[in-house]
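USER: Please consider what follows.
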Amino acid sequence: MALDSKIPAGSIDQKWTNYKNKINLVNPANKRNLDIIVVGTGLAGGSASATLAELGYNVKAFCFQDSPRRAHSIAAQGGINAAKNYMGDGDSVFRLFYDTVKGGDYRAREANVYRLAEVSTNIIDQCVAQGVPLAREYGGLLDNRSFGGTLVSRTFYAKGQTGQQLLLGAYSAMNRQIARGKIKMYARHEMLELVVIDGKARGIIARNLMTGAIERHSAHAVVIASGGYGNVFFLSTNAMGSNVTAAWKVHKKGAYFANPCYTQIHPTCIPVSGDHQSKLTLMSESLRNDGRIWVPKSLEDAKAIREGRKKPTQLSEEERDYYLERRYPAFGNLVPRDIASRAAKERCDAGYGVNKTGEAVYLDFASAIERYGKDQARIRHLDENNKELVLKLGKEVIAAKYGNLFQMYEKIVDENPYETPMMIYPAVHYTMGGVWVDYNLMTTIPGCFAIGEANFSDHGANRLGASALMQGLADGYFVLPYTIGDYLAPDIKLGKIPTDTPEFEEAEKSVRNQLEKFVSNKGTQPVDHFHRRLGKIMWDKVGMARNEKGLNEAIKEIAELREDFYKNVKVPGTLDSFNQELEKAMRVADFLELGELFAKDALHRNESCGGHFREEYQTPDGEALRDDENFAYVAAWEYKGKPADAVLHKEPLVYDNVKLVTRSYK
C-alpha cells in the first residue's frame, strides 16, 4: 500500500484553513448517532474526549488507571509552547515552526508542524478560559520562559507542575461531559485488541482490570491516545504502567509503525543509583534556564568528588568546565535535549562524571541565586553587597519558580539543591516515533486515529522541550475534532455497530487465548525479570549511541529473550480476577516485539539525526551527521507476522519552506 499523507495543497500558512473550509461536516443531530472510542485520557485523549463530546458525539473513554487524572501527562513539569510573542522578543508562528523542524533535525513533516505552531496560540486561550493557573507576571500578564533549542521565551508554565494543571483542565472538561452522559468512562480498563470490520476500525476488546472480565466495545471510529513506548528500556522517566500495547495492537492489525528508533534521551534526570530501581525521575528542562551544567576540569578533581574527598562547592570557577557554554556559545545550556544528552555522556565517558558510578554531571544554581538576589536587593533598595541577604532573596526567587522541583530532588537524593549543585544524567524520556498517521491523524487503518505521543507526526528525530503538551492539546482540542468529522460524515445512517459479529468473536477469542496461555504457563521467572533484561539490551546497544555491531547483536538477543519469555515466564493468579502480573505480562510481550523492530529501524538508518545517533556517522567534533540524500524520509513499518519480517515503506519528506542545512547551535 502506498503511503498517502493527504497533505492539502496551497501555501503552508493556508493549508489548514483551506482544509477546514472544504471538509465534510456532520450536523449536530447526526453527531448524536455516532460513537467514538478514545483509548487514553492524558492531555491528548482527555482533550479529545471532552471536545468530541461537547460537539455531540457519544464518546467511550478508556484508561488503565483508576482515574483519567492519573494519566502520565500529569508528570510533565516545565511548560507548554505557544507562539504568542508575549515577551516581544521576535517570536512568531513561523519561528515556532522553524525551531521545531530544526530541533527535530529536519525529519518531520512540514505541514503537520506548521499546523501545530498555528493552533498553539489557541491552546493558551482555551486553558486560561478553563481556569488553568498559568504563571503570571506582576502586572497580571501570562509569563514565559525559555526552553532548549530556541532563542525566544515562548513557554507558558505553572511552576514545575504544568502537566498536572493542564490535565486538570482537560479532566474538568471531561467531567462536565461524563455528568451529561456524553462520555461513558471506563477506568481500570485496558485495550487488548482492535476490531476491524470490512477494513475499518469498529471497536476494541478491553479487559476490566478489577474483575478480569473481557469486554467488547463498538464504535464508528477508534482513537489511540495511549502515550509513548519509552518503557521498552525498563528504566525511563515514564510512569511504570506506561506501555505500547494499544499502539502495538493496532500496528499488528495493519497500522504502520513509524520511526521507532527516534527516542529521546532527556539530559536532566536524577541519575541511576543502583539495580533496585524500577523507574527514573525527570528534573524539568526549565531548570536549564537558570542552572549551569558543569563537570570538573581535571580528572583528579572528578575522582576526588566521586570518592567523597572533595565537594563541588570547593571548586572555583576556574576549576569548572561549563562544557555546554564552551561548546555551544550561542545557545549554551539551552541546546536541544539530544545534544545536551550526548555531551553529558561524552564527558562522563571521558572520566569526568561526579557521582559514585561516574554517570552524573552538575546542574548548579549558585549563579542564578546570586543574580536574582542582587536584582531583588536593588528593587527593594537594599544592600546588594550583603551576601547573606542576596542569598536569601535569590533563593526566594528560585523557590517561586522551581520550588516543587527542588523539593522533589531533595526527597529523592537527600541533598539540598539550594546549597549543593544537583546531579543529573540523561535518561529515556519521550518517543518521537509512533503509529504512522496522515494529515488527518488517521492511521493506515481507516477509522483508526492516533494522537499525541502515540503518533509520530510532529517532532521528527528530536522533540524540543515543552512541545509534548502543545502537541497533545493541539491534536485533542483543535485538530482531531475537524478531521474525524470528515471521516465520519458518510456513517451518519449506519446505526449502532453490533458486537455479535464474527470479527468481535475472533478478536475476543485471540485475547482470551493469550491471557490463558500466560496464566497456565509453567515458567519460573517473574515478568520483571524479562523486562529488566530487555531494558539492559536496549540501553547498552540501542540507547544514546548505537553502532552496526551492537544493533545486530540486540536484534538477535531480543528475539532469543522473547522466546525465553514465552517458555519461562511465571504469571501467578487467574485470568478472571485482579491480576497485575498478568497486566504486565501482556505489556512486556508487546515490548519484546517492539524492541526488535526498534533495533531494526535503527540499523537500517545509516545516518545520525536527532535522538538517533549512530557512532559510524558523526562529524569530526562528534555531532550528528545526517544523510539527506538517502534518508530524508519517514520509515513506516508494516507488520508481517514478526518484527524480523516487517516491511519498510517510505514517506519522502519534502522541504519547501525550510532549507535543509546541518543543524548548528554554536
About this structure: The domain at 267-428 is CATH 3.90.700.10 (Flavocytochrome C3; Chain A, domain 1). The mean pLDDT is 96.
